[in-house]
Amino acid sequence: MLFLGGHGKSIAGRYYYYPQSIDFSAGHTVEKQGIGQDKWQAWLGSISAQKTLLVLDTCESNSAAGLVRGADSARQTAMDQLQYATGHNLIAAASQAAYEGYRGHGILTYALLEALDQKVDNGTDDRVKVGVLANHVDERVPQISQQLLGIVQRPIRKLSGNDFPIGIRRPVLGTAGDRPTILTTPTHVLVRSELVREGTAPDAPVGRTLAPGTQVRAVEFVGTWVVIARDGEKLGYVSADALARLQ
Predict the structure, then answer these.
(1) In this predicted model, what pLDDT tens digit does every residue of 155-169 receive, in sequence order?
(2) Which residue, among 92, 73, 74, has the nearest Cα to 83 in the 3D structure?
(3) Angle of CA points 89, 132, 10, to nearest 5°
(4) pTM across the whole model
(5) CA distance 93 to 177
(6) Residue 35: strand pairing partners
(7) Within this chain, do residues 142 and 201 fall inside the same structural domain, yes or no?
(8) Domain boundary residue, one of 106, 135, 168
(9) Phi, psi of 221 (to 5 degrees)
(10) Are the CB atoms for 189 and 246 separated by under 8 Å?
(11) Could you read off the pLDDT of 5-26 as tens digits, one per residue?
């Protein structure tokens, strides 16, 4: 099983992964310094395993600027070619952006951990197969992205039909009492002065008032309300129409 988390791009229907050493200010290009699918194919071809799975929690550099049909089509073609060239089962984050910031993980990564998680180990043989993993990702990634960002992220799955177990469920996400990690990077900006309330009701108690232009992180969408945070700490609820997504 190969897992890639980071940044990727499709160029002319071919997939490239950005290594940590890539430096665009030094004149590096994705085609020359990126790790292309030809190299991935050669590396993977040198491994004699008969049961394989590729998981790519990466996205394209221009996808955050706008979700356009052309970018979606190019991404889909790149994933098709990569899966066909290697013959491996493949699960990829999205046909556009691979969103981050859910309990300290990328959304796809967290969904994978959910599928592998078991709060109580009852000693039974609770195996997780590739098909189960893919089905859970298909269901949960759109749900989490809609809840977190108000944008639906849809994963890509390319399964060869060779279903097999990749592991046994274990408690990998901690206990129910653990406090989820909230990232400090802001995702939205307030477009007006806004009261931050303690609940999802117009008359809920007010905790503070934030000025227009305040940058916050959207933690959870609840109907027409959004739970916001700053510096990793939850502040409360604001109306969703008071927020604009940062570009």
Answers:
(1) 888 887 778 898 888
(2) 92
(3) 35
(4) 0.62
(5) 28
(6) 17
(7) no
(8) 168
(9) -95, 125
(10) yes
(11) 878 888 877 788 888 898 888 8
